[in-house]
Specification:
Bound molecules: alpha-D-ribofuranose, calcium ion
Mean pLDDT: 96
CATH superfamily: Ribonucleoside hydrolase-like
Number of domains: 1
Number of strands: 9
Strand order of the largest sheet: 3-2-1-4-5-6-9-7-8
Oligomer: single chain
Structural class: alpha/beta
Low-confidence stretches: 1-5
CATH architecture: Alpha-Beta Complex
Number of helices: 11
Shape: globular
Strand content: 15-25%
Distance between the termini: 7 Å
């Protein structure tokens, strides 16, 4: 891939990705890394969820080595949710190794000395209110950062959330995994006062990622294509939810948005982890994706794949 120094590097958007890689998280990270002329990726922060934080942190380091972006620091996240222990990783969805049992060469660098919640605060201060956080896992690190640094909400421009749903959940009838895993944390994030773009299952389910995404692309690196194709296979060509959320930063028009007041139920009732969307114009805190142009998303994904050239 062309070195970032070859491109015009002014006016880039500072971003931080909070993730639990994770099969679909891989494609979110690949999008974040593929456009260095657009995005100044300040850090990748890891959390448990799809696997333990040890595994997701190693996966993040290995993914950045594969994508030739070891310039990006990885900050290791919490080892439990805000108020509960991690639940057992479900190998069916992300495999034993958190990456669909697809092997990626091991990185030989280690994570940043700062824990994720401090890295979020450090980066947010450096970016003077311009930082966009993309969170595609349980929101524990962000919630910890808000709890420990009350001024953080004035330092983050926007939070893009892969999470929630306006219809059926994937853990319970009402709750999507990222929110359900740490609903108290998600509640803190949605009530932080930072504008939220919520991309939930109601739209992500409509955009499965299939092997045909590679059609017509001949110049992609074999090692990258092999990993991507292996991940798509492992998930039986289902949606790569996290990449769909990130794609909104490359093309806002992929989604039809509803301005809303969105809150999270965190009461251990049958609605625990539900994202409730109200069209209350008096207290808007979010844009919720209610429609998706899947062809526009696929164009973004093909543009990304073409960036990983030999
Ligand atoms: O519900 C989908 C979300 O849960 C995705 O972020 C996936 O990686 C899992 O974390
Ligand atoms: Ca994820």
């Amino acid at each position: 891939m062309k070195a970032s120094s070859d491109r015009n590097m002014t006016n880039r958007i500072p971003i931080l990705v909070d993730t639990d890689p994770g099969v679909d998280d891989f494609f979110c990270i690949a999008l974040a890394c593929a456009f260095p002329e657009l995005f100044d990726v300040k850090a990748i922060c890891t959390i448990g969820g799809n696997n333990t934080t040890d595994v997701t942190t190693a996966n993040a380091l290995n993914i950045l080595k594969l994508l030739e972006r070891e310039d990006i620091p990885v900050a290791r996240g919490a080892d439990s949710y805000l108020t509960e222990e991690f639940s057992e990783p479900v190998e069916k969805f992300h495999g034993r190794n958190g990456l669909g049992n697809v092997e990626i060469p091991a990185a030989d660098r280690t994570a940043d000395p700062l824990p994720a919640y401090e890295k979020i605060y450090q980066v947010a201060k450096e970016c003077n209110g311009e930082l966009i956080v993309v969170t595609v896992g349980p929101e524990t690190n962000l919630a910890l950062a808000f709890e420990k640094h009350p001024d953080l909400s004035s330092l983050i421009k926007k939070i893009v959330v892969m999470g929630g749903t306006t219809d059926k959940g994937n853990v319970t009838e009402y709750a999507e995994a990222n929110i359900w895993h740490d609903a108290p944390a998600a509640k803190i994030v949605f009530e932080s006062g930072v504008p939220i773009d919520m991309i939930g299952l109601n739209v992500t389910r409509q955009a499965p990622l299939r092997q045909e995404i590679f059609d017509g692309i001949v110049e992609v690196r074999e090692d990258v294509k092999e990993v991507m194709s292996g991940l798509i296979n492992f998930r039986n060509e289902e949606a790569m939810h996290d990449s769909i959320a990130f794609a909104s930063l490359l093309n806002d028009k992929i989604f039809t948005w509803l301005d809303a007041y969105t809150y999270v139920i965190a009461d251990h009732s049958e609605h625990h982890g539900q994202t409730v969307i109200e069209e209350d114009k008096e207290r808007l805190n979010s844009r919720v994706a209610i429609g998706i142009d899947t062809e526009a998303y696929y164009r973004v994904m093909k543009d990304m794949i073409r960036r990983y050239t030999k």
